[in-house]
Amino acid sequence: MQPAVEVTDLHFRYRPHQPDVLTGVNLRLEPGIDLAPLLAESKWNLTHVSVGLAWLLVLFVLGATAALLRATLDLSERRGAFVSAVTHELRTPLTTFRMYTEMLSEDMVTDEEQRSRYIDTLRREAHRLDNLVENVLTYARIEDERAQVKVESHRLGELIDDISTRLRERAEQGEFAFTLELDDALRARELRIDRTALEQILFNLVDNAVKYGVGDDRKEIELSIEHEASKLVFAVRDFGPGIPQAELAKVFRPFEKAEAHEAGTLPGVGLGLALCQRLAQAVGGELVYVAAKPGARFELRLPFARAAA
Predict the structure, then answer these.
(1) Which of 22, 84, 151, 217 has the fewest other C-beta atoms within 10 Å?
(2) Closest Cα partner for 271 from 76, 72, 78?
(3) Cα–Cα distance between 309 and 305 in angstroms, integer?
């Protein structure tokens, strides 16, 4: 095979008084093959590679633009759903407030029992509005990454007894019985948790059970706290119809409601479970749905390390 390049007439001149200096090189290169076809082929390959890269760049830009437009449309739809849901949720209690307060202030209700019912209704609507505003603000802070978790040490028994008072009141408003299951050994444990986050998660789960756990003769909501392996599990269960298999994929999506209730037959903006899941992640745990027959069971699972002995 003929070499690609021949090197001939290579001479060096050396200066003894300057041993580190190379003063002259005679070099002549003689190509052993014709390089023109190779250069032409190389140019052809470079052209095609450049065109291919340009098309890839165009496709990438088109894909990124499509993804951005899709995300923008999705955000717009979510904002529209949010505004619609919140507007609907605010209109009903505000109408009730205006009508009942006008009737009470103008002494149009003379029967004391009826006055008491009106006042109880106003109180319930006020609590519902307070919970709605609290959920929306908390969700907004989490989405903007402005939520701050305040982890403190609490004795589990005292903490749950305190929180369960509000949970029981919410269950009784919907004419549900409320039961609490907590082992005495767990009552004495210290739990490091953000109390507000834990209460908000459990309240939203009970609130959902009251709204969607109907349809069965057993109108009961159970809250149980259990120790399983390395997890401390807070479980809220109802005995209603549960969640259809087809709707499980969207159960934790914000502003999503079950198809049977999308027409607004039940109060709510479809934010409770999405907020619960994000709060659970914020405190280092997870929220999962467990099918129960009958009913639905939601479990808040916290690492056992958060429950120090």
Answers:
(1) 217
(2) 78
(3) 9
Query: What are 43's two structure tokens?
Result: 């140019």
For the record, the structure tokens of 78 come out as 């979510």
Q: Report pLDDT digits (tens) over 225-268.
A: 998 878 899 999 999 888 888 888 888 877 666 554 444 555 55
Residue 141: HSE in the Cβ half-sphere, 13 Å Cα cutoff: 13
What lies within 8 Å, CB to CB, of 102 at 6+ separation is 108
Instruction: Look at residues 283, 29, 19, 30 and name the one whose alpha carbon lies nearest to residue 148.
Output: 283
Count the residues in the chain.
309
Take residue 241 and report the two structure tokens written for it: 């119809």
Q: What is the pLDDT of residues 187-237, one digit of tens each?
A: 988 888 899 999 999 999 999 899 887 765 788 999 999 988 788 999 999
Mean pLDDT of 2-13: 49
